[in-house]
Amino acid sequence: MTELGLRNDVYRRPLATALDRLGLGEGWRCVDVGAGGGDVTVALAEMVGHGGRVYAVDCDPSTRDDVARAAAPHSQVIALTQAGEDVLLPEAVDLAFCRFLLMHVLEPVVVLRRMGQITRAGGWVVAQEPITSAGRIDGEAFSMPEARHPDVGALLPALVIHAGLEIVDAWAEAPAGAGSGPVRDYLTALTDVDPGDEPVVLPPLVTVVARKPEAPQS
Ligand SMILES: C[S@@+](CC[C@H](N)C(=O)[O-])C[C@H]1O[C@@H](n2cnc3c(N)ncnc32)[C@H](O)[C@@H]1O
Fold first, then answer.
1. Is the CB of 101 under 6 A from ligand 1?
2. 198 lies in some domain
3. Taking residues 179-193, what's their average pLDDT?
């Protein structure tokens, strides 16, 4: 799968909103599951600083080189080739994050449950996934037949609860535009189709910010 640096631009706002919502800061331990080219990994690394750590996990070994390149100045980034379904880390993390991942996996709830298992009690699990068919090009709905669950964003809050996590906040956000600009550039790079001056609403990204429940007092 081609990774697009542009994705980080057009979907930057929901990412920033989610990270602000958590208060992500210096020293946090994080994992970016399905890290791809590492756009989110780099954003996390900048925020946690050299005292923190970011594991970039992806099942595709070729992404390790992309992440290594993107994260070169950040020694706190560790790239691992693992599947999200059974990811194993040397320490519990404060934040397990995924974006545009659950739409591709066999069973999204299995990955969310695993993300909860590798997070410390009271820590954060954040997922950002699209409702592809709610996007529009000149009024026509988007489709993405190669994705297993192109509309998984619409189910995300329920999946997070089924994974045993507590929702703190959830919302949807969609970049939109017409004519030249980042939305048109993103779409052209993604689909090879230039929408020209037609109006485009990219697929809304549903963000769910959740916590792993604290361990019961004994
Ligand atoms: C569309 S890319 C998203 C990249 C990045 N999260 C972003 O938002 O820019 C999806 C990534 O998920 C990875 N992936 C797909 N299934 C996976 C799985 N079961 N476990 C781990 N990674 C997976 C793919 O290899 C790909 O790099």
1. yes
2. no
3. 89
